[in-house]
Amino acid sequence: MLDQLSACPSCSQPLAAGDRFCGVCGADLAAAHPGYGTGGVPGGVQPAAPGGWDGFTPPGAPGRHGEPDFTLAPAENPAPGARPGYAGRGVRARLDVQGPPVPGPEAGGPSVQGPPMPPPVAPGVPESSTHEHPPPGTPDGPMVPPPPPPPVTPPPPAAPPVTPPPLSAPPASAAPDPRAADPRLTRDDSPHDGPPPHPTDPVGTPVASGARCVACGTGAVDGDGYCDHCGHKQPRERDHMEGALPSVAAASDRGLRHHRNEDFFSLHEAVSPSGAPVTIAVVCDGVSSATRPDDASAAAAVTAGASICESLPQGTPAPQAMHDALIAASEAVTALAAEGPNEPSKNAPACTIVGAVTTEGILTVGWIGDSRAYWVPEAHGAPPARLTEDDSWAAQMVAAGLMTEDEAYADPRAHAITGWLGADAYEVEPHTASYKPEGAGVVIVCTDGLWNYAESAEQMAAAVPADSHARPLQAAQRLVGFALDGGGHDNATVAVIPFPGPSEGAGPV
Q1: For 62, 103, 188, 326, which has the most beta carbons within 10 A of its beta carbon?
Q2: What ranges does the record list as Basic and acidic residues composition bias (predicted)?
Q3: β-strand partners of 368
């Protein structure tokens, strides 16, 4: 037998009797000193340690019982005190340990050794049509049966459908209540207590504590208008409004850029002295640079609509009734400045207005400002028409022949209005015009939040749904959606009046 080595040839670590590997650097002492630990026989085979696995298997030689040779990856959670890259005596380890190094022993100290490694487990064979597992209990069979599959929870039963309550007959007018809420605030599939909602009222009710959140759909809305689950601020009461009568419908939306909806509309139905039906729609747009523009638009729309609805049944001609209604609306907005409160840095409450009346085959429009009315015929190929002329800088430039329409509306000053309702208006000059449309069609009454995305009559006609004559409310909803899809830079409001289509020709009366 060769003499026992007293120190490692690689790191000079003292060795104990019977050591075959250095406890510090892991050097193979037999490789460094042939014949060491083999009883003096170079190249001799080291007897297997008890248990058969703690011994060293030469590279390339088959493992015990025909098992393949393994190179063990480092454990994810090494034993305390184990050095990085060292997997214990008799086991080859990869030197790619991740994480901070653990300090080893000082030179000359005892060797560091991790816990004995467990016997390797041969990789499992996936189940397939070409592999069979031996029965459990055999030497090569599985030692532990596979765990049972997790229990399958049956899906919850579907909720029964809920039928909405029936609607009652509409009244003679349909002006949206300024206190009415966005329909997204209170839309609920559960049955409602009390009388059903009226079809002419804006869909929805004022926000109440406990209403369902429009963002997450689960949280309750507190008294300040915030969801107690996700914290989402709920829409304001006027952010979205809709109204409908049998002969007219309207929709209004805050848009995507403004913090509130400063538009408003008013819808009415009446009967002329001759018994002919009368349809009235008024749309107003608050001036954002003024004080309380939302109050101004609401006051003007409600006042003008009520004025026409009162005067026409008494025999007042439609053009005169429209003119008087615009003057009454102007006076209502002017009165807001005296009532206050007003912001010192802003102008008095102000808005624009446009209205339309249909009765006995005649269409009458009236306006102040840049809100518009369009005629869109139902017949394919019939030309549409814009029925109003803006009170704006761009319109004045075009009327004076100083610019073309395209040049004027491309100018940053294009939408500066030259006519409006309010205490600081220079002079209120109502505009009215009457028409006899040829054939059936719809009258579109809207604010610039819509016509900015469909300025010409042809563009507006292309945006109006083909079934708008039969479904005016859906047409109004889709036109508001068209403005939102275009960018929603402003409040968007539109009223749609289906026209019955008399046999007489078109053109101003």
Answers
A1: 326
A2: 179-192
A3: 353
